[in-house]
From TrEMBL:
It is found in: Cytoplasm. This is GPSM1 protein. InterPro entries: GPSM (IPR052386), TPR-like_helical_dom_sf (IPR011990), TPR_rpt (IPR019734). One of its GO terms (cellular component) is cell cortex. Signal peptide: none annotated. The keyword Repeat applies. It comes from Molothrus ater. Keywords: Cytoplasm, Repeat, TPR repeat. Gene3D superfamilies: Tetratricopeptide repeat domain. GO terms for molecular function: G-protein alpha-subunit binding; GDP-dissociation inhibitor activity. GO terms for biological process: establishment of mitotic spindle orientation.
Length: 134
């Protein structure tokens, strides 16, 4: 992925750079390098915004939330997951909306905001039932 990023930078292909940053962020996340993952996903987010790519922006927010969880930055994670939720609603993607509610429910539990956690988990449950997702 680093070679790919180098090549697409040389070619000046910004859209491909965004994808490369996302791939690098996901790889660093899987390797447990959460700070590096965050740096790559922030680059991905900036390019997604540059192109008005709401789906890529939504994925970047979700990935940023996931990485911050592992660094114990639950407030920051919740902020990113709220942005994920907002974009999933704009994109009318119920499956992703359910996923965002699930992530927010878990994060609110970590923040000991149990009332909010219940609200998000109930919303997740309702969407899962609507989608027939057992």
């Amino acid at each position: 992925f680093r070679r790919n990023l180098s090549l697409v930078k040389e070619l000046g292909d910004r859209a491909a750079q965004g994808r490369a940053y996302g791939n690098l962020g996901n790889t660093q996340y899987l390797l447990g390098n959460f700070s590096e993952a965050i740096a790559f996903h922030k680059e991905r987010l900036a390019i997604a915004k540059e192109f008005g790519d709401k789906a890529a922006e939504r994925r970047a927010y979700s990935n940023l939330g996931n990485a911050h969880i592992f660094l114990g930055r639950f407030d920051i994670s919740a902020d990113y997951y709220r942005k994920t939720l907002q974009l999933s609603r704009q994109l009318k993607d119920q499956a992703v909306e359910a996923q965002a509610c699930y992530s927010l429910g878990n994060t609110c539990t970590l923040l000991q905001d149990y009332e909010k956690a219940i609200e998000y988990h109930l919303r997740h449950l309702v969407i899962a039932q609507e989608l027939g997702d057992r």
